[in-house]
Amino acid sequence: MRNAEIAWSFYQIADLLDFKGEEFFKTRAYRRAARTIIGLQRPVAELYASGELKNVSGIGKNIIAKIGEMLVSGECQLHRKLKQEIPASLLDLMALPGIGPKRAKLLYERLGVTTLAELEQAARVKKVRDLPGMGTKTEQGIIQDIGRLKKKTHRLPLGVARELAAELSEYLGQLAAVQKATVTGDIRRWAELAHSVDILAVARNREDAEDIIEAFIIHPVLVEVLWREHGRVRAASRWGVPVELVVVNEDQYWLALLWTTGSKYHLRRLQLLAWQRGWRLDLFRLISRHSGQAAIVDSEEAIYRLLGLQYVVPELRENNGEISAASGGTLPRLVELPDIRGDLHVHTNWSDGMSSIEEMALRAREMGYTYIAVTDHSPNLKIARGLSPEKLLEQFEKIRVLNRQLEDFYIFTGVEVDILAEGKLDHMDDVLAQADVVVASIHSGFKQDRDTITKRIIAAIKNEHVDIIGHPTGRLLGHREPYDVDVEEIIEFAARYNKVLEINASPDRLDLNDFYVQLARESGVRVAINTDAHDLRRMDEMVYGVSVARRAWLEQQHVVNTLPLSDLLNVLHG
DNA sequence: GCCGTTTTCGGCCCGACTGTTTTCAGTCG
To answer: N or C: which end of chain A has fewer CB within 10 A?
Structure first.
């Protein structure tokens, strides 16, 4: 069992116990354990076997026992029992904003509602308003939120989509009849939301294709075959997003890879250009219009070369000017993960992170970075145990001591300071002045109007100590819409005050998105790609932020955390 | 549920907001 699956079980146990009205501290313990497991760098099974699990903070005797059960049988008894007792669809209700365990229970017991569809029906016939504590506004809200949910269920945030795709392609890769399996489509282009999970497999023998499909569709994550034709199958997955598998022979691989990667707008432009240049490009084939011969290619690069183009990386294939740039040889030299020299926004166990400053720094050094900025929360964010000014200065002192011990690595002192509801910052200027890196972010007042929120952020930009605006739109992909903010104006002010905007690399955020990052670049605003990691493992999510930068055509010089330490110091203090 | 060497029991967790209320329960970050 993978760590993610075990963690997922604990999250679900927590939700189910919440529903039963179990005390807060117990359900929190399960959630904490889940979060800890997600953050582990080694397989739980390994730590369990070696007995090291008991040294992990937040995981005690009971949870270890349940992990043991899961490792043996795939499920623990408590989870099984809870699932029997409570319809799983009730958890969907609790995912609605404003509906927690108490209200879900009320709806279930008084109206017999178990699914979103039933809840919507109950709301439409005005039954919800009769329940204690609920009224017409709640009822209207339910109808609206369910409507909104229906629209988005078929798109999966990039992070989850990649995990699902990795699992399926790994599974395929293990089949004897499969030579290799590659993830393509939206995911290969690093689109922030995947409409489908696409996998391309190469069969060892021509006649194996159907057997591969047979073996594929029995994978437990797939629930139903939607359609199927020779060498192709589309199935519904448990995650709500469709999965598509294409099986080809080796000689078709590169054109099939190009074709399945998309986007369809990029392909359309490519087809047109191919036609103009004497080729016919269609499904898995590139045929000379003169000779009628199919081109034989041994890479995607070769296909673009045949068409007289520079190679276009998947991230750029959105019909956003990349084909004319490739034709003129003017594609940008995109920023790459190895260009990143440090992470300027991470949390430690001084606030709501899971690891110590030392652990985060050592991990960063291991990753090849030369610096990191520790940016724990400010006092306003009580739930994250935001640091008081005194505590923060104590942390700075600790970091100075650590810096004397570390060779070839530098820890910036820093803070992620809340932009308060009135636009003030959650630390005094004399405190901020002592930090190397100040990330200013909004964590409250999400529902304020556009003008108010925009002004708050502009006020932060104007503060001389602020270096970076963190997750500028506050969205959580698939969970929370961005707050209403005039991003164009933020970019304008960032340009005027020479401030850096963040690409928050967490796959739950990807904030700013590629569109605004491109606008920022065109306005001369530099970005910092930061993970906002709260544990060691999530420092690895840098690659997601880099993908946003690449989709926005960013080069190394547009990203401040590609700078060598000394240059970055100049930017921060200059 | 987890945690702890001044505790093996009693802490852990906090305030704002919303929509519903006449004083507050539930939700959320």
So the answer is: C
